């Protein structure tokens, strides 16, 4: 068809077709290139299907929703790759082939259009859109409308400016910043369904290897689910701009074997220990009004503004994943949260060194 | 020509010149002011981008504080959409539409001036925020809510003080200006065409500006309404977006994006117009499939009104809602594909002259193709659950806005600068500009897709080490250097050529539309005699009397 355009001038295209001799099929070469490209893309993506490149690689899924998206994306990338190769080659060919020659100053043949070709490049994209839409709709339905099987873990996620609160209604538990879920055997799935709420502004829960993101919006409860197939720590972070420290609102999901998970639940259900050697620190925690924002079960501390600290030492990180939970970082954080996270809502504390050590010493007993 | 007027202009004092420009209602002067104004803001937003790229070059960088970074990305986005892209396209539209349809001015010259000054004051007000509060170095109290300013981050509880007020009031002003411009485009194109120029004989540029004007009327209104609601929420105790009193933050998203998505087409459709004009002139061929191009443009205009919630795939719509917006968004690919193929077919069999306007237009074609395909990926709701709000999205829309819109604006500068000033831009400098900008653009934005695929969200002032994002961010930042040099060359080229460029003559490109029939720069009244036309390419008819277009159209 393209050779027709080259030669015809203001005449019906159909007339001309009959007169043209059959050219070597350029499309066959293009098809070969496309095929090679297909294989290339698929191979490249299959090889990155590991978390070695990045712990948050969307092409290394380890949970059913993330995997459905991954498979859909491969299918789509093949189609788009083919479109890219074809259109790119045609453009490149036109740009190279139809350059102006110096010696030739005449105007080229004027062609105003061709209904057949217009029709062709309207109908073909329509067909592609139909295929892509139907495939997509299927995946949307599979991920969004999934039902809860027996053994589902329910977690309510409440996002705050700039930390995460997780409630396990089945276990009467409230924990902060580090989400623990059981591993899910694909044959006997025990997925975790997350009910997503916000305590202030919009946030988004995004752990790329487990699922796509879903926003947490005030007064607009959302749901998402994950069923991690392997144990380990999965990383992510808030993906909806939520204010000054949006960047340090990190997500850590601990996927544990069922036994480990049960043990963790049991440990977390315990009240805070009352080690007499840190009684002074505990008293100071109350006297300095830390309790106004933080809960420590078993102590007169029921604040709900900041993270629950009942088992602070069971966590690997402080400040919603911003720093490791070390004695030194803990002291920096208590004295001035702005050291790691300028804009965090925990106010700087006016404490003497010994007061700081007493409070930190007390917190260090909260295993 | 106005030989009697010449001595008068020569004796004008500087004050008289200033007064003439401030008080002008001439479409060319207003167009010129829009363009200069937008170029100033382009430089400002570029500086903001460079600061952000320095910050993001390394993980856990302390070059900027989070507060300043958040102000910068908000200002960069807001400036880019409202005070660079819109004004520059309005500027070219204002300058070109009356010339190309053989009119002596826009339909409402005073409204035109009003629109420009509203937009101009909007931009000045927005940047006033940099000088408020603690002043320039700590970025004043510039808005820090992001360019789409999701509720409830804009509520007084989360945004105390006046930073959000600067944002909302300046957009309110600029929005009124845009609506004035939109009314003017529609009225001018429908009512002011010269004899013989039926709708089907208008240059594509006029058609596309008509669609753009219509879209502005439909889309700026919800934005303006939303800004008024926000002001009422903040100061009059209204509860439109106050969830604790029965309001809805999702409503803000709907209002914003039913403006925000068609806005993208408000920006890209005039660029399609530039490309259409440039490609057919430099391929030396008539536009292939003119009726299909018009139909595709109009249908993009309509379909674009029904796709807004693809910005909201992650906010938790029911599956049927998501599927609906997947379909409408994907459908946009059909008319867009028609356009690309028509441009391709216009080049096919032509004799392509690679002057600077054409190489920028060809660059646009390749980059717009890629930007369109990544757009398809984002239109696929489940894929968007991963890619949405990540750096992939940032890369995608910069591919459209820089690789698409900015490239065509450069093309338009090289193409119409001779008409506006009477002097040619330097071709050698133009090619340096092009190649450096292409290198910089691809370094920055090609590699920016990758951290998005590896889980890097947008709008973060810094990021964690060890996530595989550092290298790609560093490459993106290096690309900014090339882009900066290219822009400096461009600015130098314009200033130098304005004074020293080769004289252009009336028709330097051997083109076919009416603006090339008058002098460069055109006189105040554009045409001494109102032209009349018989085809889409009136100058072709004159140059080829033996073979005129009107026989075939």
- The H-level CATH homologous superfamily of the largest domain in chain A, spelled out, is Cupredoxins -  blue copper proteins
Unreliable segments of 5+ consecutive residues of chain A: 1-22
CATH topology of chain B: Cytochrome C Oxidase, Chain A
User: What is the count of distinct domains of chain B?
Assistant: 1
Largest interface: A-B, 93 and 92 residues
Coarse structural class of chain A: alpha+beta
Q: pLDDT average of chain B, as an integer?
A: 93
Strand order of the largest sheet of chain A: 3-2-1-5-8
Number of helices of chain B: 17
List keywords for this structure.
heterodimer; A: 367 residues; alpha+beta; Immunoglobulin-like; five-stranded mixed β-sheet; three-stranded mixed β-sheet; 38% helix; disordered N terminus; B: 553 residues; mainly alpha; Cytochrome C Oxidase, Chain A; 17 helices; 66% helix
Write the layout of secondary structure elements.
The complex is a heterodimer of chains A (367) and B (553).
Chain A: H1 2-7, H2 13-19, H3 26-48, H4 64-97, H5 115-144, E1 153-160, E2 163-168, E3 173-176, E4 178-182, E5 192-198, E6 203-205, E7 214-216, E8 222-226, E9 232-237, E10 250-256, H6 258-269, H7 279-287, E11 317-318, E12 323-324, H8 327-335, H9 353-363
Helix pairs in contact in A: 3-4, 4-5, 7-9
Chain B: H1 5-10, H2 14-22, H3 27-56, H4 66-100, H5 109-128, H6 163-191, H7 204-235, H8 249-282, H9 290-303, H10 319-331, H11 333-347, H12 356-379, H13 381-387, H14 391-421, H15 427-453, H16 470-500, H17 538-543
Helix pairs in contact in B: 3-4, 3-5, 3-16, 4-5, 4-6, 4-8, 4-14, 5-6, 6-7, 7-8, 7-9, 8-11, 8-12, 8-14, 9-11, 11-12, 12-14, 12-15, 14-15, 15-16
């Amino acid at each position: 068809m393209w050779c027709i355009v080259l030669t015809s001038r203001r005449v019906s295209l159909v007339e001309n077709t009959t007169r043209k001799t059959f050219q070597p099929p350029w499309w066959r070469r293009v098809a070969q290139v496309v095929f090679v490209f297909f294989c290339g893309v698929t191979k490249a993506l299959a090889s990155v299907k590991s978390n070695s490149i990045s712990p948050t690689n969307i092409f290394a899924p380890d949970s059913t929703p993330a995997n459905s998206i991954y498979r859909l994306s491969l299918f789509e990338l093949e189609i788009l790759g083919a479109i890219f190769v074809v259109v790119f080659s045609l453009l490149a060919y036109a740009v190279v082939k139809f350059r102006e020659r110096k010696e030739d100053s005449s105007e080229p043949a004027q062609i105003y259009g061709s209904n057949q070709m217009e029709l062709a490049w309207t109908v073909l994209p329509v067909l592609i859109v139909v295929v892509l839409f139907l495939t997509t709709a299927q995946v949307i339905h599979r991920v969004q409308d999934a039902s809860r099987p027996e053994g589902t873990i329910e977690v309510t996620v409440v996002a705050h400016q700039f930390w995460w609160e997780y409630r396990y209604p089945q276990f009467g538990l409230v924990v902060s910043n580090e989400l623990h879920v059981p591993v899910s055997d694909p044959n006997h799935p025990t997925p975790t369904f997350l009910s997503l709420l916000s305590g202030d502004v919009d946030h988004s829960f995004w752990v790329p290897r487990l699922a796509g993101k879903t926003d947490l919006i005030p007064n607009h409860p959302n749901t998402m689910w994950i069923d991690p197939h392997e144990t380990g720590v999965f990383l992510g972070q808030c993906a909806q701009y939520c204010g000054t420290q949006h960047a340090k609102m990190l997500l850590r999901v601990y996927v544990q074997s069922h036994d480990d998970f049960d043990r963790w639940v049991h440990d977390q259900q315990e009240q805070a220990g009352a080690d007499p050697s840190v009684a002074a620190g505990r008293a100071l925690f109350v006297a300095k009004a830390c309790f106004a924002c933080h809960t420590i079960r078993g102590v007169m501390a029921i604040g709900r503004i900041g993270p629950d600290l009942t088992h602070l030492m069971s966590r690997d990180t402080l400040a919603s994943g911003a720093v490791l939970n070390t004695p030194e970082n803990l002291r920096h954080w208590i004295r001035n949260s702005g050291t790691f996270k300028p804009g965090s809502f925990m106010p700087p504390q006016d404490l003497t060194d010994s007061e700081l050590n007493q409070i930190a010493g007390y917190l260090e007993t909260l295993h | 020509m106005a030989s009697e007027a010449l001595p008068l202009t020569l004796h004008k004092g500087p004050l008289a010149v200033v007064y003439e420009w401030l008080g002008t209602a001439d479409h060319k002067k207003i167009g010129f002011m829009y363009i200069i104004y937008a170029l100033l803001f382009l430089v400002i937003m570029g500086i903001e981008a460079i600061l952000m790229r320095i910050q993001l070059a390394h993980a856990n960088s302390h070059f900027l504080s989070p507060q300043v970074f958040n102000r910068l990305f908000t200002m960069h986005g807001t400036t880019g959409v409202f005070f660079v892209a819109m004004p520059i396209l309005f500027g070219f539209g204002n300058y070109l539409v009356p010339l190309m349809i053989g009119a002596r001015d826009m339909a409402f010259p005073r409204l035109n001036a009003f629109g420009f000054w509203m937009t101009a004051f909007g931009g000045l007000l927005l940047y006033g925020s940099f000088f408020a509060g603690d002043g320039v170095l700590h970025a004043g109290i510039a808005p820090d809510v992001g360019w789409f300013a999701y509720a409830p981050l804009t509520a007084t509880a989360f945004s105390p003080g006046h930073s959000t007020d600067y944002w909302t009031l300046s957009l309110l002003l600029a929005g009124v200006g845009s609506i004035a411009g939109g009314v003017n485009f529609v009225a001018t194109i429908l009512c002011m065409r010269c004899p013989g120029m039926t709708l089907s004989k208008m240059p594509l540029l006029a058609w596309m500006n008509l669609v753009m004007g219509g879209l502005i009327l439909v889309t700026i209104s919800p934005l303006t309404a939303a800004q008024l609601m926000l002001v009422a929420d903040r100061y009059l105790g209204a509860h439109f977006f106050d969830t604790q009193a029965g309001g809805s933050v999702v409503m803000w998203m709907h209002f914003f994006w039913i403006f925000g998505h068609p806005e993208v087409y408000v920006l890209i459709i005039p660029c399609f117009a530039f490309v259409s004009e440039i490609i057919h002139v430099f391929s030396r061929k008539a536009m292939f499939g003119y009726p299909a191009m018009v139909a595709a443009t109009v249908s993009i205009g309509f379909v674009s009104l029904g796709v807004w919630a693809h910005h909201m795939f992650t906010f938790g719509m029911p599956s049927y809602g998501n599927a609906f917006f997947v379909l409408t968004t994907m459908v946009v690919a059909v008319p867009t594909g028609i356009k690309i193929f028509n441009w391709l077919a216009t080049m096919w069999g032509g004799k392509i002259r690679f002057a600077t306007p054409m190489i920028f237009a060809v660059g646009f074609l390749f980059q717009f193709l890629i930007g369109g395909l990544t757009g398809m990926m984002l239109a696929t709701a489940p894929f968007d659950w991963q890619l949405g709000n990540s750096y992939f999205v940032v890369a995608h829309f910069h591919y459209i806005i820089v690789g698409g819109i900015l490239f065509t604006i450069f093309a338009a500068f090289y193409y119409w600068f001779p008409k506006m000033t009477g002097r040619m831009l330097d071709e050698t400098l133009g090619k340096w500009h092009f190649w450096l900008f292409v290198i910089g653009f691809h370094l920055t934005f090609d590699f920016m897709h990758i951290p998005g695929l590896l889980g890097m969200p947008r709008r973060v002032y810094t990021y964690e080490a060890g996530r595989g994002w550092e290298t790609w961010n560093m490459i993106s930042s290096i690309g900014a250097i090339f882009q900066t040099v290219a822009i400096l060359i461009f600015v130098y080229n314009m200033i130098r050529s304005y004074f020293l460029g080769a004289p252009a003559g009336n028709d330097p490109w051997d083109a076919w539309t009416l603006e090339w029939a008058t002098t460069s720069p055109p006189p105040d009244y554009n045409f001494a005699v109102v032209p009349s036309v018989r085809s889409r390419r009136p100058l072709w008819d004159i140059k080829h009397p033996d073979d005129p277009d009107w026989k075939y159209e």
